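Pipeline run #58 for the internal structure catalog. This entry was flagged by the ingest filter as a single-chain record with no existing model, so it goes straight to prediction. Upstream metadata was stripped on purpose; only the residue string is passed forward. Reviewer on rotation: M.T. Logging verbosity set to normal.
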Amino acid sequence: MTIIAAADGSALGNPGPNGWAWYIDDDTWAAGGSPHGTNNQGELQAVLELLRATAGIDEKLIIECDSRYVIDSVTKWMPGWKRRGWRKADGAPVLNRELLEGIDEAIRGRDVEFSWVKGHAGHPLNEAADERANAAAKAYQQKQEPRRGPGFVKAEGAGAAVAAAAAVSAGAETARPDAGGSTPSGISDQRPAATTRQAAPAQTLWAEASDLLEGLDAPAADPVELHLVLSAEEHARLQDRAAAQGISLEEALRRLI
């Protein structure tokens, strides 16, 4: 089986209130954004959120994007940027490095391919992702909470469902104007003709800390009470992560440790 998903971003003003969204079908999608960011940051954030949400799946993942910048950054330019210490050929620092590093880590060991689609041309998945990304950007513009979506649910065992969605900062890295720009069910057993990348066959799976202690006789350490002061932006990012995973803020913070 192959999972086909669309990832898209939106920015009102570019930079301005921005949004991101990934979409597989009406029951499997997620969206978010930030008060200030660029369109490219929204596009990259959507890909990163999709990769993290689907971490640990065995299926091949096809990501449809209408952004050449995103596809070329990940499949063509990133190896050279990394060799040069995240600098472009002219020596200038790579924009949106934090998001690109996150994608580089999240895609490692995954069977992932990118397929370019023309935006606003009637592609069902792309249109659905674009609609949700734009709605998220408008929500931030109006200082409202965006619709987050149900996230990604992976069936395990005898029909049990385990939420696998994960989110990183809804506010992508501090916005900087950059030159690039963006120029329904998504589950299929057909391999698209237009693909740009196939990662190595090895897989990286997530595990809870308790899984790593399985079979050990040593008693658990006494819990440590921690008091943490967060800025409003940090608190919003943590809320985004918790909402995408369907867990409490406390549990979201614990999973970061």
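catalog note: Strands lie at 2-11, 16-25, 28-37, 60-65, 112-116, 153-156, 160-163, 187-188.
catalog note: The chain has seven helices and eight strands.
status: ready for reviewer M.T.
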